[in-house]
Amino acid sequence: MAKFMFVFRGGRMGQLSPSEMQAQTERWRDWSRKLIAEKRHFGGQPLENSGKTVRGSDRLVTDGPYAESKDLVTGAMLIEAASLDEAVTIAMECPIYRYDGAVEVRPVIDFEI
Amino acid sequence: MEAEQLVADLFRQEYGRLLAALTRLLGPQQLSLAEDVVQDALIAAMDAWRFELPRDPRAWILAAAKRRAIDHLRRIKRLGALQAQLEVEHALAPAEQLASQLALMFAVCDERLSPATHTTLILHFVSGLSSAEIAQAFLVDVATIERRLHRGRARLRALGELQHAPGALPSVLQALYLLFNEGYHGSDHPLRPLLCEEALALVERVLDHGPEVHALAALFCFHAARLSTRLDEQGVFVPLAEQDRGRWDRALVERGVWHLGQSTHGELTRWHLEAGIAFEHACAPSLQETNWERIVELYDALYAELPSAVIALNRALAIGELRGAAAGLALARGLDKELAGYPFLFGALADLARRASRLEEARGFYERALTLARSPAERTSFERRLAALLS
User: Fold this and answer.
1) Who wins on pLDDT, B356 or B194?
2) Are A54 and A60 in contact, with CB atoms under 8 Å apart?
3) Minimal CA–CA distance to B316: which of B270, B347, B276?
4) For residue B357, is pLDDT > 90?
5) How do residues B249-261 score in pLDDT, each as one tens digit?
6) Which residue from A105, B30, B48, B227 lies 20 to 30 Å from B368 (Cα-Cα)?
7) What sections of chain B are H helices per DSSP?
């Protein structure tokens, strides 16, 4: 089993009705619970839109992560899968696409060569 | 530790309660701000709960809304942090939320707006139903609902404070009736018990407005008593004839009978007639032993009061029980223009045709019902009946 990081981008929509918001929350929960049941997932982290960025040798601090809303990182999750292909298959079932989101599937470098 | 699961309709219920409380606190001219605060709090919940639920989801949303409301209140009313916090805590306490929902319901029924707009505003702002859900309840298109909301928003903002509009009661009762109905056979979910519970809780808070309020409360009780038997384990609708009457909630039926007793002085309204019909069903030991004669009489009176196609359909079904399926079919068939998009019409026509041994006709009606079905529960229910017909 190899480790993969799912980086969630976008998928946040302001103009949903309360029932649609609840339905989307339930889709995420169902997906996340399924991965927990399969012992693939060790907890995801949701991120706020706001924050600061520190950059360069003079440690310039700026407001916000600066990204278009569809590219904004909205969360991340570490999962286990046999291969990149399998990780991609798992990512396909994520509910994020319904509202214009994306999942970046990144293999975590194995420390034990 | 996290909550096991989300209560169905939690977001919708919190939307209505918090919006009503904040509109009362900030004033109706700040309606858009109140909507933003509630929307923001719910979006925050949706984002934060993707991977796990908080221990108490309702308290989580409440805390998120409070934090946002305090900031706005300080700015608008130029209040200190502590005073703003206390005002928000008070306004968002559960009993105050319910009081605010009632205040908002009676305030939106402004005499310059139509009754249809009143009920639209109540269903959206007080109960958190979306335009699509309200359109379903009214059997009209979404654009019509959006227009009513637009007019209503403008009117609400112009009100200085939430005042009891004169003559509001009929619109309030109509809105609660639609809210209950949306819970009883909803557009996307076959059954939304929280909507029914909320309609009953709200109607029982306004009983002192007249005997017809008791009649509506009685109607809700009789229907709510049958809620748990309307779907089977697969979530498919169970026809009245096959419902397990032993599982109907006797305590709710009793409560309905009490309300009906309290409703008798004063004018006879459509709520009395509908409650009378629901009473006959709730008290009948079986479909065959139902007092269909009495039910047809009540439908006759109801149709005279309110000549709508849906009532005509229900009357035709009762006549089908009293005088035979062919008699019911002859009446119901005439409704296919007015109710062309209503799946239950074609389901009912198919059932009547099947019982009148006109199998080819029944099959055509089931197929038409299937193309109109709005939820998987409706679809499966028609599919099963069609399969039973063909076998």
Assistant:
1) B356
2) yes
3) B347
4) yes
5) 999 999 999 999 9
6) B227
7) 10-26, 31-48, 57-77, 81-91, 94-108, 115-121, 131-138, 142-158, 169-184, 193-203, 211-225, 250-262, 270-283, 292-305, 309-323, 325-333, 343-355, 359-372, 376-390
**Distance (Å, rounded) from C-alpha B359 to C-alpha B385?**
12
Q: What is the mean pLDDT of residues B357-385?
A: 90
Task: Tell me the CA distances in angstroms from B68 to B33, B37, B57, B111, one per residue in order.
Answer: 10, 6, 17, 33
Per-residue pLDDT at B164: 87
Stretches in chain A below the pLDDT threshold 70: 14, 113
**Does A19 lie at the interface with B, CB-CB under 8 angstroms?**
yes
- Tell me the mean pLDDT in the region B256-270: 94
How far is it, in rounded angstroms, from Cα B163 to Cα B15?
21
Q: Is the pLDDT of residue B186 over 70?
A: no
Instruction: Check if A28 contacts B (Cβ < 8 Å).
Output: yes
Q: How far is CA B212 from CA B136, B259, B260, B346, in A?
A: 26, 10, 9, 33
The H or E element that residue A104 is part of is strand A101-107
Six-digit token string for B157: 């903002």
CA atoms of A29 and A90, how far apart (whole Å)? 15
- Return the residue matching tokens 């229900």: B314
> What's the CA gap between B289 and B391, in Å, rounded?
29
- Considering only CB atoms, A22 lies closest to which of B12, B48, B132, namely B12
Using a CB-CB distance cutoff of 8 angstroms, which residues of chain B are in contact with residue A29? 5-6, 49-50, 52-53
Nearest residue of A to residue B128, measured between CA atoms: A18
User: In this complex, do B133 and A25 lie within 8 Å of one another by their Cβ atoms?
Assistant: no
CB spacing of B43 vs A19 below 8 angstroms: no
Using the Cβ of A17 and the Cβ atoms of chain B, whether some distance falls under 8 Å is answered with: yes
Phi-psi region of B286 (alpha: psi -120 to 50; beta: other; left: phi over 0): beta
Mean pLDDT of B60-87: 92
As a whole number of angstroms, the distance between CA B306 and CA B309 comes to: 9
Cα B352-B326-B274 angle, rounded to 5 deg: 65
According to the model, what pLDDT value does residue A11 have?
82
Residue A30 at interface with chain B, using a CB cutoff of 8 Å: no
| Mean pLDDT taken over chain A | 90
Using one digit for the tens of pLDDT, what is the confidence trace for A50-74?
899 999 999 999 988 777 778 899 9
- Which residues of B fall within a CB distance of 8 Å from A74? 47
